[in-house]
Amino acid sequence: MSTIFENALDSLKVGMHFYMSGSQYSTRKHAILTIFHSVELMLKEYLYQVNPILIYKNIDKKITRSSPTVGFSDILIRLENLKMKIPEDQAKTIRNLQAKRNEIEHHRYDHQDEDHELISQALRFSLYFMEFQLGQQPESLFESTLLEDIRELVEDYNERYAIADHRLESWIKEEWPSWDPEVEDSPEEFIGVDTCPKCRHEYLVMEQKGAPYCFWCCREVPAEYCERCYATKICDVPCCEDEDDIYFSLDE
Q1: pLDDT grade, residue 109 (50/70/90)?
Q2: Which superkingdom is the protein from (predicted)?
């Protein structure tokens, strides 16, 4: 086990300690920060296992102990260039976690119930990644009670995912009774779903259910499309900022 992975594992355990301490502002905030730190280090460990030099930002300069290491966004690009691309659904999970981390570090932390799902997804990614990409067995790394807590959170996320799928499919069947899911993925008339700006899950129906409705949140969401980037956002809340706004920097 490398020192990078030891550091990642320690951050994950500390993040879980904060998370299990309660849903207060401070504990939830530090849980997000430390769990993201753990995920970032796991990705660096993935590079390290290929060649230790790949964790450094500029591999064409002399490497010292103080040489800067590669940032999160560059890690994903470097892995893709090495034909080790992270699957898009997993990449989206950690990008959402990174966006929340950036909000905390560069702006503010808006304490939200939806952060429970965000952390559950990150833990789901961590367990999968450490076992199937890094070759580390969770059972040998965590105390049994802590691993049980983590898996309980992951199973809760998986269950909610299945429930959201069922809600969406049931609504589609009501709207288009002749639709046969065994023949086609969705009715031809169905324009699809968008990312909910509240929970960040792709279960938002923008136009075909009256008001925008998220089948993950199970509620109407005051959402609209951004006129600049066309992403979904909360009505009357800015989406795109100036390029020099560090709040939305993805390079840190």
Answers
A1: confident
A2: Bacteria
